[in-house]
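We were asked to recover a plausible sequence for a given structure. The inputs and outputs are reproduced exactly as logged, with field labels preserved.

PROBLEM: sequence recovery
POSITIONS: 119
GIVEN STRUCTURE:
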C-alpha cells in the first residue's frame, strides 16, 4: 500500500506552507528544542506542537550539531548519528534473510518491504 505524498494522505505545515506526508508531520514540527507546548488542531484531532522563542530549525536552516569526525553540521542528532556511521563503518541494521546491512533504519525498512514483503 502506498504511503505519504503518493497515497494522497498529506498535511500542510502552518508555519512554512510545505506539504508533507501526514506520517512525517510530527517529525517536521518537532525540529526545535522547547520548554512549552501549544495545541494545534488538525482536522478533528489535535497534536502538540513544540514552540520556542526562536523559529524551528527546519525553517531557519540552523545546524548547531557538529559531526565528531569532520566539519559537517546537522540540525538533528539523528542525521548526525547516521552520517557518523560513514566514518565509523557501523551498519547496525542487518537483514537476517540475505545478510545485507545498512547504516540507517529507513533504508533497511525499504529493503524489507521491497525484497521480503510480509516478513
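RECOVERED SEQUENCE:
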Amino acid at each position: 500500500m502506498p504511503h505519504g505524498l503518493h497515497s494522497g494522505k498529506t498535511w500542510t505545515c502552518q508555519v512554512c506552507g510545505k506539504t508533507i506526508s501526514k506520517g512525517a508531520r510530527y517529525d517536521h514540527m518537532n525540529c526545535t528544542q522547547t520548554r512549552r507546548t501549544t495545541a494545534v488542531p488538525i482536522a478533528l484531532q489535535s497534536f502538540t506542537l513544540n514552540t520556542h522563542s526562536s523559529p524551528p530549525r527546519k525553517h531557519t536552516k540552523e545546524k548547531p550539531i557538529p559531526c565528531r569526525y569532520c566539519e559537517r553540521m546537522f540540525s538533528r542528532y539523528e542525521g548526525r548519528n547516521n552520517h557518523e556511521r560513514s566514518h565509523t563503518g557501523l551498519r547496525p541494521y542487518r537483514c537476517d534473510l540475505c545478510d545485507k546491512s545498512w547504516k540507517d533504519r529507513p533504508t533497511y525498512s525499504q529493503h524489507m518491504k521491497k525484497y521480503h514483503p510480509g516478513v
